[in-house]
Amino acid sequence: MEFKKFIFSKGALLALAVTIFYGVFMISIYFSGYKAIPDKIKDLPIAVISNDSDSQELKDNLVKKLPFNTIHQKWTMDKAKKELDKRSIYLIVEIPKDFSNHVQTLDKTAKLHFYINESNPTTAVTAMESVATKIGASINENILLNKGKAILTSAQLTVLKEQVAQKVSATPQAKDQIETQAEVQKSQIETKINRTYKNLGNSFIPVIHKTNKIPSGMNHSMAPFFLSLSIYIGTLMGATIILGTYTKFAGRIGRFKSFAMLEITVALISVITPLIIVLLAQAFNNFDSSLITQLWFTHGLELFTAMNINLIFIILIGQLGMIINVPMMLMQVVAGAGLIPKSILPSFFKGFSTISPCYYSIQADFNVLYGGSGTGDLWLKLFYVALVAVLLNLLAVTIRKKNLSGESL
Description:
The protein has 15 helices and five strands. The chain is 69% helix and 7% strand. Strands 2-1-3-4-5 form a five-stranded mixed β-sheet, sandwiched between helices. The chain crosses the membrane at residues 12-31, 225-247, 259-284, 304-324, 344-362, 382-399. One of its GO terms (molecular function) is ABC-type transporter activity. One of its GO terms (cellular component) is membrane.
């Protein structure tokens, strides 16, 4: 009887509901968020730039065959490189001047240039490297070798056929001997051309240029993601704990004074905690110590913003606010764009990234650690999110005049 009461109690039923809720929520978030790879790689924008007026056909063929929906063709290289640095595009394919001339000259090496910004999620970098390799192999084998080899072989065999016909016409009695000699010559021609084109296999080289290079190792490529998420998860628990102190003091000194003290305390935590975490990360990854100040500022701003976001629902509905905050934390993993570029995220996560502290801190970390532009703009937008979160908390304090037990604050 007692066992039956226990398993049908509110606590047991709530535990069941919570485990189902978070299980379904996590599966929904991660499966919907990461299904973008590899199907949505084609939505990453790139640029194809030709500086060779005689290679228009090659450029048109590349644009036609490349598996991307957005291909910028009219930019200059300077414009394309700036957009690559800003992560507005993810690959530049450059056909350099005199490319076609070098293709047709035996003692010249034709080079097709690929530019990839490594200061990006690993999925994007790997996808662009794969595309560059495939393009190089396709041009090398299909355009330069097979077609050229076929044309040259056909031309020389046509000449040989005409010579045989002339000899047979002049001396019909030696027809068999002439044709036998022709077969030997034909074999020699094919052998010579095969040998020549085997050497020509190295006459084209795809040159891949990587900007903002990231040191090898997942610990480096994932550093922005790990740093930002570690800060955010800490604020998830920290907000719950500090609410108790706010509630305690609000009953004694008033909720607005207590809220002011709460924000000051959060600001102090935002100074101390990120410094410790950044120094620990520097010890593991051994990045330049001159970057510590910028990383400290980035994650200090992230912590202050994230703590205030997590406080909104806890101030309004107490501990039950975690029911909202935990899913929001899980959504940061996807919307932060540390694993998948924002441009190919599903629309929901793309929109959520605009209010995601992790998105701004992850992108700023990529810039600070490995290179990229727009860091100041990212900081400013994160500050705006923080400001809105503080104002919403002030509104929540104004609305909630009593604690959850009904006592006045």
